[in-house]
């Protein structure tokens, strides 16, 4: 291509141009590089900052992950500790009382100290925290609470599950937080307790619950049951889970029955008239009584009070004759005789009679035909009045029914027992033997009891007098007494003890404890007294006492005979028991063994077989 071509001419022109013209491309390139470098730096810084943010976020996420793991581990540990705390009672034998599924406890050698607790049987003595201010739970033996080995005695008789005849051996103990320390030295004791509140309760149904609530202190049990307490007669008033809770009293049973009904207004007014009669005559009658009691009271300020009408006078005579045959002193007995016939016989027996008829409605002369009938109720009221009046005059009172015999003097036994055991109760009662709701928890028999005179016992009898309309409603002196005993034990601190059935034996043992009765009839044991209670009527009482060797009236000494003897009634006594067989299936003296006699009960077992 010729050099004259325009391209070549242009090239030559550039090369031979001015100096500034030659530098222009280099400056432009430098500017482009600077701009590129700036933006590359911006991009690099942005990338670096994003990497830093990413790294920081990753670090935060890593820390959060570690914390979550730690929290999860802590939660697992809390669950494990809770599970261990719940399972501990099942693993720790002394606390199995609070667990529904308890393993068989290993055999241990336990020692019982003055607190009545098994110190060696407990695998741990550390207190376990409970809800609220409860810091520990444990168990103590029921025997220690009843017998007094724990520092006090409840005075109640032993309790057996009726279905299995198994004694309840342990009681649950909850410890409140101490004012200065929550430390409990031994939860299975009362060593750290300054005060003990005892709740005596029985499971009446599978759905029975006990609530212990932190609140103002109350010494009264509040009962609620799922039932319709206002159901019409014959309606469904049994307890069931499909019903609402209703407030109920102590006499309500799960079957809907109520053994503690309030007296209606008509019954109350009838009772008011009885009270008016008693208090209007009190000053005059009590003065006459005091004059007689001062002549017979013994050196311990004890008097024995009995009540009799003509219908039971042979039972009274038998008591007198049996005591004299055993050389037992009965000189401090006074008998509230409710009619002329009985007063004459009492005087003839050499006892002190008292006519208190101005103080109460006159009972009939005949005996009660059955437990709870009208005659029975009226005589029960006289029993309240007689003890109240004697106690109000300042005497210690032993009250007893007429269907009793002594093997040894009960007052001497009580004094000796108190001296040896340290017992010092306000009142002592025979164990009735019944474990029904209306007599709970003491099951105190109202036919044999001893009251030491003090403010607590005198007010006990005053309140029983005030509430004697309950006798008219319940047809039971004993039920009314049981109710007042509960109230006064809680409100006024009345202390009472129920005596052993093996020493103060009654009709429950006669009818339902053949091994004990057999031991007695063989002479292997001997109770202090025998009370022929738990028996339908007087005729049966006479027959039972006649065949067991506790009858001391000469042959023919029936009610009519004793009545006719009058002031010569002392002549009916026999120095030896007069034994007559009646029934082969009831306890009888070994010398008679009555095995050839007919049975009393259709399927009765021969006693001496």
Could you outline the blueprint of secondary structure elements for this entry?
Layout: H1 6-15, H2 19-91, E1 134-141, H3 142-147, E2 160-161, E3 166-167, E4 170-176, E5 223-226, E6 245-248, H4 265-296, E7 302-308, H5 313-325, E8 333-337, H6 340-348, E9 352-354, H7 374-392, E10 396-400, E11 404-406, H8 410-421, E12 427-431, E13 444-451, H9 455-466, H10 469-474, H11 477-492, E14 496-498, E15 504-505, H12 507-512, H13 514-521, E16 529-531, H14 538-547, H15 559-565
Parallel strand pairs: 7-8, 7-10, 8-9, 12-14, 15-16
Antiparallel strand pairs: 1-4, 2-3, 5-6, 10-13, 11-16, 12-13
Helix pairs in contact: 7-9, 9-11
Report on the structure:
By secondary structure, the protein is an alpha/beta fold. 39% of the residues lie in helices and 12% in strands. Strand 7 (302-308), helix 5 and strand 8 form a beta-alpha-beta unit. Helix 7 (374-392) runs antiparallel to helix 9 (455-466) and helix 9 packs across helix 11 (477-492). It starts with 5 loop residues before the first helix and ends in a 44-residue tail after the last helix. Residues 1-20 and 85-127 have low confidence and may be disordered.
Features:
single chain, 609 residues, alpha/beta, seven-stranded mixed beta sheet, 15 helices, disordered N terminus
Distance between the termini: 158 Å
Q: Would you tell me the structural class of the helices and strands? A: alpha/beta
Strand order of the largest sheet: 9-8-7-10-13-12-14
Q: Could you name the ranges where pLDDT drops below 50 across 5 or more consecutive residues?
A: 1-20, 85-127
Number of helices: 15
Mean pLDDT value: 82
Largest sheet, in brief, is: 7 strands, mixed
- Alpha-carbon Rg, integer: 44 Å
According to DSSP, the number of beta strands is: 16
Beta content comes to 5-15%
Shape: elongated
Share of helix among residues?
25-40%
